[in-house]
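Pasting as-is:
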Amino acid sequence: MILSKEIRHLDRRWQTGNSWPRRLEWLEVQGIRGWGGQRIEFAFPIVAIVGENGSGKSTLLQAAACAYKSETGEVGRFASEFFPDTAWDSVRAAEVRFGYTEGPSHRSGSVRKPTLRWNGNQERPIRRVQYVDLSRIQPVSARVGYAKIAKTAHHESSARAFDTSQVQRLSEIMGRRYDAAKMAMSDIDDKREIPVITKGGIPYSGFHQGSGETTIAELLQIDLPRYGLVLIDEIESSLHPRAQRRLIRDLADHCREREVQIILTTHSPYILEELPPYARNYILEADSVKSIVTGVSPQFAMTQMDDENYPECELYVEDVAAKVWLAEILSAHGKEVFTRCNIVPYGAANVGHALGQMAEQGRFVRPTCVFLDGDNDAAVGCIVLPGEDAPERVVFEDLSKRRWGNLWTRVGRDVALVSDACTNVMTLGDHHDWIRVAANQLLCGGEVLWQAMCAEWAVGKKTMAQPIVDAIEQRLAA
């Protein structure tokens, strides 16, 4: 995965450890909407929380909002607003615990409701917090009270113009040039703002804009307070994939400049792909028990949230390289089980450890096998792939001993060219670069080369493949 320049710059600043003097470090929610004290940690300035509808993403965002009290003169957020008692809901024995940084100090606090009242509000640290629920931004024409403005003769009574930088940000995120933008009031209603954008010299109000334009216009008017906390619910709302990517990159720049912390929820793989693994948190729920897993791949997240019917058995592997390797192993030595399985990359090894424990406890709906790369130690519920090393190293080193076998015929290149290209890349320090660099030298796609290498490696490896096939068969038969 190649991170954008903006995210790489943000990461370099973050890794110095000298920035973000105010930071929410972790959060635990107990006794609210099915949460039982599980901890989520915020290990990057921009962190995404992903999961199915109803899994508890918004609850975590709301809990983060009420971890701080406002600065003097500003409207604060309280747990009683987010988690009220109603005729159908009674919140008791509830608590939001949190850890936070204030300069060099690491502290913890809580707000709690043992019986009828929330306690601890006055002991909370002070910080500016912005809570933005993009999922609830409706088209202007659908909002309560706006129809009267459209149906009545009116004029603009006042407006807050976007500054040059805001207009430029709007243009860059949406991928088209805007001349100006503002939030305007009509003389019919002085409480309901209307976004107005100008492109090609023609103004368009929120009544005639695309919903994505309205979403970004309203988002950009929100202040990103220095050292503050910004919480954004369903950040991808109404935005096409390129706009989603540009929005994250825009936020990364401003996050770095203002040392602001951003926590967001999403269902989008495009948002997840923009962030490093340690900035992705997936809420897994099995048998009504929630688990927070950090480092998931976008593919794993989307598979978990997809309603399509998948094959009988799920096979989880660390990355795409392992996926292709396992597929070729099964294609050569386990065809009878291969057609019944779906292989999904999950991301970091710690995700595999969490999935392995869940598989061991029988918490998946369908039979599941979890695989770790060979450079990991054995773990509960996990199967370690052959070779005691990363897939790329295992395959390259084995084929090099065999003088690359018939790889040259599989990729349709001269035998000497294949031998030279594959041998030379093994001197590179990072094995993740081997396939890409060798494929470039051979003028073929990296996917084509790696699949051919895995297929060639699998020849004659029945003894190494059999434990994998047996493990899958046992899961299918259970």
